[in-house]
Amino acid sequence: MRIAHVLNLGIKEIRGLARDPVLLFLMVYSFTLSIYTAATAMPETLNRAAIAIVDEDRSPVSSRIITSLYPPFFVPPQVITQSEMDARMDAGLDTFALDIPPNFQRDLLAGKSPTIQLNVDATRAAQAFTGGGYVQAIVSAEVDEFLERHRGQAAVPVDLALRARFNPELNKGWFGAISEVISSIAMLSIVLTGAALIREREHGTIEHLLVMPVTPLEIMVSKVWSMGLVVLIASSMCLTVIVQGLLNVPVAGSLILFMVGTALMLFATTSLGIFLATIAGSMPQFGLLIMLVLLPLEMLSGAMTPRESMPDVIQYLMLAAPTTHFVMLAQAVLFRGAGLSVVWPQLLALILIGAGLFTLALGRFRQFLR
Q1: What is the CATH number of the domain that holds 116?
Q2: Number of domains in the chain
Q3: What is the pLDDT of residue 369?
Q4: Among 13, 24, 81, 299, whose Cα sits 20 to 30 Å from the Cα of 341?
C-alpha cells in the first residue's frame, strides 16, 4: 500500500462530498439543529398541559382546586359542564378533565372520603404519564390545607438527603445532547462511507479506479480515513460550539481521550458502511440496510436505555457492536471524567471490533470489485 495513493484518493473523496449538497446538509443538520432539538425538546416537567374542570360542587374547596392548576404546569383551566367533557376529549381539546362531584366539601367536613374523577387522554403520552401524578399531588395538597385550616408541610418519618453526582441539576438536556452526538457520529460515518462507494458505482468512476495502479486496500483505506476525518472534525466542533457553548453542557473529562475513542469508533463504523454498500445494489437499498442495522445499534447500545435493564442475551450480543463500547466510553469520559485507566477496555474492544469489520469489509470489497 502506497501512502501517496491513499492520500490522493482520500482527498478525492472529500472533494466529492463537498459537491454533494444533500450529504452536506445532512451532516450540518445532524451536528447542529438535531443536537439542539434533542437537548431542549423534552421538558424537565409537565409543561402547559390542557385541563378542563367540571365543578359540580361550586364550593370554596373546589375553587381552591381550580385556582391551584396554573401555568407553567397547566394552561388556565376551562370550566365546563359534564355533557361537554367527553366531546372535548374526543376532539383532542383537553388532555385532562377533572370532575368534582356534588357535595364534595360537605363530605370532606363530615369525615368521609369522596372521590374525584380524573379523565386522561393517554394518546398524549408525554403528558399523560406524568400529569396524573401532578394533578393528584396538587388536589391532595389543597384538600389537606383546607381541612387543616393552614398551609404547612407534611411531616415525614425519614428525611432523604439527595446527592446527584455528574448531573447535580438533574437536567435531561445534558444527557440528550451527548446521546445525540453519539448517535450522529455512528449514523454519519456509516452513511457517508457507504454513499461514497455507491456514488463511485453510479457515476461509473469505479471502472476508472480499476484501470489505475491502485489496489482495493488503498481504495478502501482512502474512503475510511477521509470520511472518518470529516466526521471527527464535525463532532469535535459540535462538542465545542453547540454542546459546551450554546447549550452550556459541562464536559467533565478529556476531549482528547474522547476524540481518540471516536477515531477508533469511526474505524469500525466506516468499515461497516463499506460492507453494507457492497451488499446494496443502489442508494435506496443502502438506505433500507441502514435502517435495519442502525436502529438496533442505537437502541440496544445503552444510549437510550441502560444495558442492565435489557435481557442477558441482548447484552451479550451487543458486546459485538462498536456502538455499545463507544457509548460506555463516551458517558464515562464526558459525564464522569474518567481517564485512560478506566476506559482502556472499551478502547481495546473498539480496536478489535474495528479490525474484524475492516477485514470482513475488505474481503467483501475485493469480491465487489471483481
Answers
A1: 3.40.1710.10
A2: 2
A3: 78
A4: 299
